[in-house]
């Protein structure tokens, strides 16, 4: 196995399932639909709502979030149309979530 094949299957050479972070009780899957600026994005959540989500300070320079990324968001208790982003999935991880039926 050389190059892209090894990368696609992981370092161990097996193409098995990867354990991914799943949503906790107060979190929901979402897809980024629009970049609003000022560390804010528009997301479409798995529960059918469209929310404005904040990118927290600890993620701003370390994790780059783009349109069509799959993320976990934590909706606000006091204002349902807003949320905080808690996790961003890599493209391969998002594909695995789609294959397993967790997201569409």
Task: Briefly note the structural class of the backbone.
Answer: alpha+beta
Largest sheet: 5 strands, mixed, barrel
Average residue-wise pLDDT: 82
- What is the count of DSSP helices, taking H or I runs of 4+ residues? 3
Q: Rg to the nearest angstrom?
A: 15 Å
Give the low-pLDDT segments: 3-7
How far apart lie the N and C ends? Answer: 32 Å
Structure summary, number of beta strands:
5
CATH topology: OB fold (Dihydrolipoamide Acetyltransferase, E2P)
Give the proportion of residues in helices. Answer: 10-25%
- Provide the succession of SSEs: HEEEHEEH
Q: Name the shape in a single word.
A: globular
CATH architecture: Beta Barrel
CATH superfamily: Nucleic acid-binding proteins
The main sheet orders its strands as 1-2-3-5-4
Number of structural domains: 1
Instruction: Assign the CATH class.
Output: Mainly Beta
Q: Strand percentage, roughly? A: 25-35%
Question: Can you describe what's shown?
Answer:
Seems to be required for maximal rate of protein biosynthesis. Enhances ribosome dissociation into subunits and stabilizes the binding of the initiator Met-tRNA(I) to 40 S ribosomal subunits. With 104 residues, the chain is of the alpha+beta class. The chain has a 5-stranded mixed β-barrel. The longest helix is centred in the last third of the chain and has 9 residues, at 91-99. It starts with a helix and ends in a 5-residue tail after the last helix. Mean pLDDT is 82; it is low at 3-7. It is built from 3 helices and 5 strands; from the N terminus they run αβββαββα. It has one domain (23-99): OB fold (Dihydrolipoamide Acetyltransferase, E2P), CATH 2.40.50.140.
């Amino acid at each position: 196995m050389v190059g892209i094949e090894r990368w696609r299957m992981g370092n161990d050479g097996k193409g098995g399932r990867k354990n991914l972070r799943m949503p906790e009780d107060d979190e929901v899957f979402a897809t980024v639909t629009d970049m609003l600026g000022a560390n804010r994005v528009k997301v479409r959540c798995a529960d059918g709502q469209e929310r404005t989500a904040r990118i927290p300070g600890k993620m701003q320079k370390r994790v780059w979030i783009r349109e069509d990324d799959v993320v976990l968001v934590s909706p606000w208790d006091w204002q349902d149309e807003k949320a905080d982003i808690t996790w961003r999935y890599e493209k391969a991880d998002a594909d695995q979530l789609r294959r397993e039926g967790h997201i569409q």
